[in-house]
Amino acid sequence: MRDTHRLEPDSANLGSGPVLAAWERFVQGEDHVPGVRPLVAISWHRCREQYRVDPHLTRAPVAVARPDHTPEHDVVFAELGFRAAAVAHEVGSLGGVVTVADATGRILAAWGDHATLVRAGDCNLAPWFCWSERAVGTNGMGTALEAHGPVPIRGAEHWCQAFHDWVCAGIAVRDVVTREPIAVLNVSCWRGGLPAAVESWLASAVTMTRYPLKSRARDSGAELVAAYTEARATTGAALAAVDTAGKVVIADDMAGVLLGVPAHTPAIDPTLRWNPGLPEFIAAARYAGRQAVHDRDWVGSTQIFAHLADEPTSISFRPVFSSGHLIGNLVLFGVSDGARLPPTEGPARPRVPPRRLVALRDNRMVLLRLPEVSFAESHGSDVWLSTDQGRLRAASLSLDRLDSDLADVGFLRVHRRYVVNLSRIREIERGLKGELSLVMEGRTNEMVPVSRRNAPAVRRALNL
Predict the structure, then answer these.
(1) Is the pLDDT of residue 401 over 60?
(2) What is the pTM of this model?
(3) Is 112 left (phi over 0), alpha (psi -120 to 50) or beta?
(4) Is 410 left (phi over 0), alpha (psi -120 to 50) or beta?
(5) Residue in 335, 416, 405, 352 with CA at minimum distance from that of residue 379
(6) Please, which residues bridge with residue 62 across strands?
(7) Which of 221, 35, 229, 60 is nearest to 138 (CA)?
(8) Which of helix, strand or coil describes residue 54?
(9) List of domains in the chain
C-alpha cells in the first residue's frame, strides 16, 4: 500500500492525542481505531495478531541472521551508503540520523547528529540490531519492508511505546524482477520534525539505486535468451529459461503451455518477466539456484503439476552463469537428470497462522474472522475477498502470501487466481469434460473454478 502523505515538520508532542488513545485501545484488544492511517492500522494488526510483538518492548534485539547477499545487493548497500553519508550533515544539523538496513531489518550503518546517535543507542537504533516489524513492530524501516513507497511513522504510530518519542520515514529498495526487498533507507528524529523534503529525497535515492539493478536485469535476460537458444539446438525436450526467482524469460511452445506463459517471446523490458503461477515450480527454481551457488556443476530434477496436466511432469534444472555469478536456470521438461530436489521445503521459521484477515473499505480497516471469508480472488494487482460483509479489498498484496498464511487453517488454493475456505463450499459442479467448479456458500452462491492441476488436492481435501 502506498502512503502518499507528504512529510512535513512534526510537532514535538508526539506521545499524546487521538493516535495514542487509539493505540492504547488497540493493544488492549479493541479493533476500532478511528483517526489512524490505514497503513499504520494494518501494521498494528500484523504486530498484534501475526508477529505477537510486545508493545512494551524497550530495545531492538540483536540481528541473529545474516542472509547471503548477491553482488547486486552489495552494489545497493554501497549506493545507499553513499547517498546516506552525503546528506548526513544536513540531517544531523536537524538532530536526525540516517540508517541503512538489509532485507531482514538489520541495520548496517548509521550517520547523523552525535547526540541523537547516542540517544538512539539506548533503544538499539544502531548497527547489528534488527528493526523488522517482526522484531520491534511498526517503525519506518520495518514497515517500509512490508509496504511500497515512502513510509512515515510518527510518535504513537510506533507499535512499541518506548519509541513514541521518535519520528521516522523509511523506503525499501526492491529487486526490479522479484519485487522482493533488498535494503531500506531511513531517517529518524527524536522529539522533532523531519525535513519537508525527506520524502522526495528518499524516493530519489531509491530511483538512483535501482539503475544498476535494471542494467543487470537487462544483461542477464539477454544472456539467458542466448543460453536458451544454444540449448534449443541440442535438445528435443521442451525448454524454458528462468531467472533466479523462477520467472520465465523465454520458453518454447510446449514449455509455454505447461508453464502458462507466452512462447518464444522474451520480454522487451527484462524486468517484466512472466510468473508461471506455479508455487511448486518457483520454489524448485529457487532451491536449484541456492544449490548451484555452492556447486557450479550441480544439476537437479523434480516433478511438478504443470498447467493442463493431470499427472506430475518431470523437470530438470541446469544453472546458467555469467561472469561467475548465477543468473538463472535452463529448465527441461520430461527429463530427470541429476540430484533429486526435496519434495517440499519447510519454513525458515515457525509461522503463526492469522486469527483474522484484514480488508479495506474506503479509508477504514475491516477485521474479518476467518469463517466470514468465502474465498479470495486475485484480480490485476489486487486481492479481493468475498465475505459476509460483501466484496472487500484485502490488505495483502499477494495471493501467494495469503495462500501461505491460510494453508493450515482450512483454506486451499484451487486455481492460480483463487483460494477458498473449504468450510464454505456448498456444492461441487462437474462439467461436461470433467472440470470442477465450487459453489460457495453465501447470498449469491458464487462459483469458483478449479484448475485441472488443483483438482486432485480438492478431492483429497473434501474426501471425494
Answers:
(1) yes
(2) 0.72
(3) left
(4) left
(5) 416
(6) 129
(7) 60
(8) coil
(9) 18-196 (3.30.450.40), 218-340 (3.30.450.20), 356-461 (2.40.50.1020)
For a pLDDT cut of 90, what percent of the chain falls above it? 47
Most confident of 61-70, 217-226, 435-444: 217-226
pLDDT of residue 252: 92
Residue whose C-alpha is closest to residue 140's, from 119, 155, 128 = 155
Cell of 369: 474472522
Q: What percent of the chain has pLDDT over 70?
A: 89
Cell numbers found for residue 150: 515512502
Lookup: cell for 278: 506455479
Residue 427: Cβ within 10 Å count: 11
Q: How many CA atoms lie within 13 A of 284 on its CB side?
A: 28
Beta bridge partners of 205: none
- Give residue-wise pLDDT tens across range 253-262: 899 888 888 8
Residue 52: predicted pLDDT: 93
Q: What backbone phi and psi angles, to 5 degrees, belong to 459? A: -60, -40
Task: Give the residue ranges of DSSP H helices in 98-236.
Answer: 114-122, 133-136, 140-146, 198-232
How would you classify the pairing of strands 382-387 and 390-394?
Answer: antiparallel
Which runs of E-coded beta strand occur in 334-410?
339-340, 356-361, 364-369, 373-379, 382-387, 390-394
Q: What phi and psi, each to the nearest 5 degrees, are found at residue 150?
A: -60, 135
